[in-house]
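User: Sequence recovery, please. Input:
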């Protein structure tokens, strides 16, 4: 049973008249070092100082990026830059954007609330991707230093009638409290709803639903680990203590604005690679079509490849292969009779995933990578934009690229419901939920009212 509740949001003080677009940032795990510096320069109160502070030479246990984040947080609250609401609320958001490499706008609706953290086998909140201990250790240090959740977990639920979000819109009123355009062109609106009637409606409607984690797997597991630490310190008799909850951005799985992008694979270097030898081995499992693209612009190449993959991948696994120095992109379509050769260790739901077809047949059996080597970020990189992936190969930044269709939302549900996990970067829910709209401050003595 999913327990969803309003909360007293911790937000930037809008009365200061600060340009809000300069205060926010994407989630920490998609920010490069160059972008980190850009956000530092954007505004002295940018959220980057809280979620991804700079490391310094001579950092110690008493002075490091986590303790400095805590110092910023205390100072900004003391100076009135950050304020905590006196009443609980649900935060309704709209996000208008253009999916990458297209010009057609979409709007995704969602609401931000607290959700009670579940144990791993409860079947209420389901992940679908692998996590790595280093990332969880990093986030745990931050939340222990700050006692604050800065970024929402991105969760999905099923609501064919869209009754929950429609109810939120009905209670929201005309004008949003916050409206701004971010530097990437996305447009954001936030309404703060303080209606007990809506709280009860949302609480009741969400009770029997399963929540699928779209993004934020590391942060969700970190919240559970932090909860367990707090339970050991403050007790677990009251299931509604604030540390029993995590802040989530929740959206309907059927929302017209929900977009999943593919995560194309870039390989920096394969020792002793020979194109014809690779293609000959790949023919063991794939039908291969040679698409000549020598006279195309980068955009027209991307459009042609995307169109072919979409058509070929309707009922079969299809992917593109683009090696550096080639005038062709090779379209590889799986011989369905060979799918069972992926391995007896895989659940049938996993065998349907293009990312695992690619991994088992091409990366492991054809190129000779071990499963451990597939997690090497120096060799394998990921790119959601087909245009940028093509450019990386043509510029020599990558030796080759493998292009994929997006993972289907039905596949995400099937994997999660069977308590399975996909390889890393199997999905890219776009755009990411921006960080800085609202934070959740954790007071270990505070009790959350569930309105149920």
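Assistant: Recovered sequence (452 residues):
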């Amino acid at each position: 049973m999913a327990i969803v509740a309003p909360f007293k949001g911790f937000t930037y003080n809008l009365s200061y008249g600060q340009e809000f677009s300069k205060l926010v940032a994407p989630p920490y795990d998609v920010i490069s070092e160059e972008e980190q510096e850009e956000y530092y320069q954007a505004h002295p109160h940018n959220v980057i100082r809280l979620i991804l502070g700079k490391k310094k030479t001579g950092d110690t246990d008493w002075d490091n990026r986590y303790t400095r984040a805590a110092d910023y947080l205390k100072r900004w609250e003391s100076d009135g830059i950050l304020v905590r609401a006196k009443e609980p609320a649900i935060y309704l958001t709209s996000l208008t954007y253009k999916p990458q490499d297209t010009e057609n706008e979409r709007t995704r609706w969602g609401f931000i609330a607290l959700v009670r953290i579940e144990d791993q086998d409860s079947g209420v909140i389901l992940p679908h991707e692998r996590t790595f201990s280093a990332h969880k250790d990093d986030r745990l240090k931050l939340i222990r230093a700050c006692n604050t959740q800065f970024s929402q977990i991105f969760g999905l639920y099923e609501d064919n009638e869209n009754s929950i979000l429609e109810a939120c819109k009905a209670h929201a009123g005309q004008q949003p409290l916050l409206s701004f355009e971010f530097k990437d062109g996305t447009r954001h609106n936030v309404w703060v709803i303080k209606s007990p009637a809506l709280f009860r409606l949302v609480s009741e409607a969400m009770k029997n639903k399963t929540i699928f984690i779209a993004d934020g797997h590391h942060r969700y597991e970190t919240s559970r680990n932090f909860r367990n630490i707090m339970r050991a310190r403050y007790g677990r008799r009251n299931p509604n203590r604030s540390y029993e909850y995590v802040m989530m951005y929740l959206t309907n799985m059927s929302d017209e604005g929900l977009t999943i992008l593919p995560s194309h694979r870039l390989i920096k270097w394969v020792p002793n690679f020979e194109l014809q030898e690779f293609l000959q081995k790949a023919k063991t499992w794939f039908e291969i079509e040679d698409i000549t693209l020598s006279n195309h612009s980068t955009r027209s190449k991307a459009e042609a490849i995307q169109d072919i993959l979409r058509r070929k991948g309707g009922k079969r696994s299809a992917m593109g292969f683009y090696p550096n120095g080639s005038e062709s992109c090779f379209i590889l379509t799986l011989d369905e009779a060979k799918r069972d050769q992926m391995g007896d260790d895989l659940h049938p739901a996993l065998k349907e995933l293009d990312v695992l077809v690619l991994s088992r047949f091409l990366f492991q059996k054809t190129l000779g990578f071990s499963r451990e080597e597939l997690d090497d970020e120096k060799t394998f990189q990921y790119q959601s934009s087909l245009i940028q992936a093509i450019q990386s190969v043509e510029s020599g930044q990558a030796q080759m690229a493998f292009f994929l269709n997006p993972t289907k939302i039905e596949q995400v549900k099937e994997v999660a419901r069977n308590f399975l996990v996909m390889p890393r970067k199997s999905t890219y829910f776009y755009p990411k939920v921006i960080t800085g709209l609202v934070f959740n401050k954790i007071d270990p003595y505070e009790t959350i009212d569930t309105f149920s």
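DSSP finds 13 helices and 21 strands in the chain.
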